Amino acid sequence: MKSETVHRSGNFGFLAEHDSLFVKPGGAAERAFSSDPNTTLIKLRQLGEAMAQHLAALCGIEFDEQTSQSDLLYDAFKDLYNGQYNEAAVAKITGQSDKVDQLIRRYKNERYPNIAITVDLLTTGIDVPHICKM
Fold first, then answer.
1. Disulfide-capable partner of 88 in 57, 71, 82, 112 (CB 3.0 to 4.6 Å)?
2. What is the pTM of this model?
3. pLDDT (tens digit, 9 = 90+) per residue, 105-119?
4. What gap in Å lies between CA 70 and CA 7, rounded to an integer?
5. How far apart are CA 9 and CA 29, in angstroms?
6. pLDDT tens per residue across span 10-20
7. Which one, of 55, 53, 50, lies nearest residue 25 by Cα?
8. In angstroms, how far is CA 101 from the centroid of its own chain?
9. For the residues of 101-124, what is the DSSP string, one character each?
10. Using an 8 Å Cβ cutoff, are 40 and 61 in contact?
11. Is 56 exposed, middle or buried (CB count within 10 Å of its CB: 0-12, 13-18, 19+)?
12. Domain segments of the chain: what residues?
């Protein structure tokens, strides 16, 4: 009965048609939203990781437990566009990126890169008006 409640989730129930495993962390995040924001963030992170792994599997991208979510998303982006994109426009930026401040300045001041593939960075507290996709 509990899984039916999760599947009826107004915000995450639609994910069941793609993979029922997406609904559990989404529904848990929704239920915890007002009472436990930290749990909500953890569950949404788990949902994001599950979706990145699912996308990578659909693209035939091999990964293991050591593969970062940002690497999965970057590889999936390259696969989905099959090399038909401006490589200068796309950059992966994480807390482990070399010269993070310099890369952020490039986003702010230069035409490219303007597509950011990021996890755990650049999501709040930064104003970069020229990023077209994040």
1. 112
2. 0.67
3. 888 888 888 888 887
4. 28
5. 11
6. 788 888 888 88
7. 50
8. 21
9. HHHHHHHHHSSS--EEEESSSSSS
10. no
11. buried
12. 2-63, 85-134
